[in-house]
Amino acid sequence: MKFLxxxxxxxxxxxxxxxxPGSLPLGSLLSGLPFNFVQRFGVQADSRAIAQSCPLPLxxxxxxxxxxxxxxxxxxxxxxxxxxxxxxxxxxxARSTVLPIGETLLIPPFNGIRVNVPPGRLIRDVAKQYxxxxxxxxxxxxxxxxxxxxxxxxxxWSPSYDTPAIVPSSVLKFxxxxxxxxxxxxxxxxxxxxxxxxxxxxxxxxKLEAPVLAVAPGTIAFAGSQGPSGNLIVINHPxxxxxxxxxxxxxxxxxxxxxxxxxxxxxxxxxGVPSVKEPHLHFEVRSNTKLGWVAEDxxxxxxxx
Length: 305
Ligand SMILES: [Zn+2]
Description:
- The chain is of the alpha+beta class.
- It has two domains: 2-62 and 108-161, no CATH class; 184-302, Distorted Sandwich (Glucose Permease (Domain IIA)), CATH 2.70.70.
- It is built from seven helices and 16 strands.
- Strands 5, 8, 9, 10, 11, 12, 13, 14, 15 and 16 form a ten-stranded antiparallel β-sheet that branches. It has a two-stranded antiparallel sheet with strand order 1-2. Strands 3-4 form a two-stranded antiparallel sheet.
- Helix 1 packs across helix 2 (26-41) and helix 6 (123-130) crosses helix 7 (134-140).
- 32% of the residues are buried.
- Bound molecules: zinc ion (ZN).
- Zinc ion (ZN) binds next to loops.
- Zinc ion (ZN) is lined by residues 186, 199, 201, 203, 275, 282.
């Protein structure tokens, strides 16, 4: 019972601090808490969390609800004192007009959304983006230094919060950024030797001065020298995409210029600080999400995976 009291009080602390005024009536939240804890989380799982002096990530301790015949999303939301959007955000199967009977829904203890955190993005960046306290976000998500998924309290879900909320690479394909097929020198993601540093694009082996082509129609958002990227071209494409071409030898386009698919925009070079010595094109694909431009693995977009 002592555990339980501790947990309840620590959760009240979290609940009080995270919810901005007006997001939920505080009284209903506080009165609902002891029930939440006994009923939904169980004491055993949380005693482990106490040992680590931080609760388990909220997303690891969601309750579940089995959809009964005739039940509507509004019924379920009301029962758990949640907004329907909160349940829709966490459960793809709750987004259709008729709920699938017998299937399970994940139920959080209060309103909020789940977001994917791109590599390299810190909790404090996400906190700033959603105007919530970073320390609260950190604690609520299990005090992990670099979580890939976060629960953000007090935010109402909408379809645009899903990341990436874009056309999948299985549907849309880009033209190859070089005239000839090229082996991949460095893949997207973590480099084998430097585990802390992630590679935000792919390195495609190419001869120096080989033409670099726009992979899709778009508008030049940057053209010039930029630190370690060397000579860099950034193209904004329709449907919330961006592509980047780094370490170029020459740049043949200007800011604001419109380019067509397959158009030459520059040449392969060795400017800036390339990740490998062999001449290559560093190519990136980014999608526009609520967290800003998020780098994606370019290979599926080039039909190489
Ligand atoms: Zn690279």
